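hi support,

uploading two proteins for the ticket. first:
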Amino acid sequence: MSPYGDRDELVAILSALWDEIFATPAVVEKVAGEKLVVKFRYTDFKTALFIDITGDTPRYYWDPEEGTPFDVEMIQTSETSHKFWMEQLNVPMAIATRKVVAKGSVQKALKLLPALKPAFALYPVILERMGREDLLEEKTTKKKKKRRAFRLFGRKGAGSYDLEAIPSFPLPLSESSLQTTPPEQAPEKEPASPTDLLKTMYTIRAFEEHLARAFQEGELPTEAIHLSIGQESVAAGLCMNLRKSDYLNTTHRGHGHIIAKGADLKKMMAELYGKESGLCRGKGGSMHVTDGSIGVLGANGIVGRFNPFRSGQTPR
């Protein structure tokens, strides 16, 4: 919930604050020489503040025409901004937990934080001047959230596995393992029709394009997302011809594989949004989404690379 009444009040308060900041020699001297344009996008009021320190005189402006260049973008709510100026926000932690979605030259922007230290004392003064002393009142009661451990196994629908559908490993770890006959497998599956393959490919493409837009808008709780756009035919051709009893362990671009294997689209999308209704209750996310009910063991970020120098071979 925004601490400000509307967009106009947000603009008025922050404009007054930045007027004071740029009139403070201690701040201006510390940012002198830096060449950076920072865009603060406020998602609740659909407005953007640009801070430009590329010229001789630092300046700010609101909602320029679309396409105005910037070096780094900070996507947040007005409440998060208020907590920042009240010194109640751990910026690196906020970025890690996606309370602030940062894009671009983030490290360069973070180096400017020490320069803003004198500005924190100005914010309460501005609030009092604007008649919003109520925002300075500290909350006396805070609800403590009860922490609970997440179990991947044991809860139906939350990463649990259908052991009846997945056969036991064909070579048990025993002395007689070489003489063990693999268990009876599920019957062969009818090949997927061209129409079904095409439909699945279109489904994967639409799914991934939605995620691309959502990530750009800062709506997904992830620092990075690896899409499988352009790889739909591989996923559909391979995974649609697997049996339910076949295991699947995919890599960092595995959304298409999991969809083609038969995962519930709504639950999978909920997982990527970090929701309780997701396949792993929102704990796995894009990189580690799992659906044991159809034999999907999960995804991982391991990418192999051959290094000829370490292996002693001469590169070609």
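and the second one:
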Amino acid sequence: MCIATISSGRELFVRKQLTIARPIECSGVGLHSGQPVTLTLRPAPPGTGIVFIRHGEGKPVSLKASIANLMPSELCTAIHVNGTSVRTVEHMLAALVGLEIDNVYVDVDAPEVPVMDGSAGPFVRLIREAGIAPQERSRSFIKIVEPIEVTDGDRRVVIQPSAGSRITYSIEYDHPLIKKQTFVYDCSVTAFEQEIAEARTFGFLSEVEDLWARGLGKGGSLENTIVLSERNILNKTGLRFQDEFVRHKILDLIGDLALLGMPFIGHLIADRSGHALHTKLVETVLGRTDSWILVNVDHSSAATNPQVAHQAFEGSPRLPLSVPSAI
């Protein structure tokens, strides 16, 4: 993210939209379905956003990464359009958002994105191999001007006004290797690659049979999931970070935030949250247009004048649930 300071002393977030330089693919299995899947990333024009293309069921179906296309799903984030779905999209989305890729087509030939090693790291390396290309259109940001909070019992997520983009995430599990963990992530490409991307998904051995009974976790293994017994980790390679668990929760949140349709400027604080609450926050933010303004280089006055921001936004095409189109 590039920040330019202008003469008034306020900060203006300025960045060109980005896509990948060339097509590239990888293969793996779905974490929950266990089905083999090939995934291909392709460059997309400015304003496209992140669009999954589902192949293998007749005519290809396009599914934009948008809160309007969210479908209920256990233990993962999934999108659907007219009965066609793609599940477990969050790690792929996290890699794209973490590297600030705005426009890309994601072709898949199965109903689930490949789990790879359980982190976003393989997708980051795939994108880096393809290369990143700037485009001739500026990227807009949702800048939070009033706090927005969603809760579910003692679980909560709140996003507050801030000069930059930050995530503070806390988790708490009754397990000796996790207990309570908190991590503060200042959003940047470098920090994402070094601090978040390699954190893997995790689960508990005591829950494995229950997952199988519900048709989930069929592609899970010690190669792509941290598995915890009552007191130990079953993976011989151990942890990549001492607090890998909370870092992975941030990875999931970054992926879920892709459903906003553009980056945010604010401080997001999550406490014992998960996919359902993450996506509930996205929907709430997009419905609370009085609590944020649209900021980009073309509408720089929006940074201090909310009315200008809303007028600029109203003049742009809109998707259902007030999802802003890519600008």
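thanks. also noticed: The longest strand covers residues 165-173.
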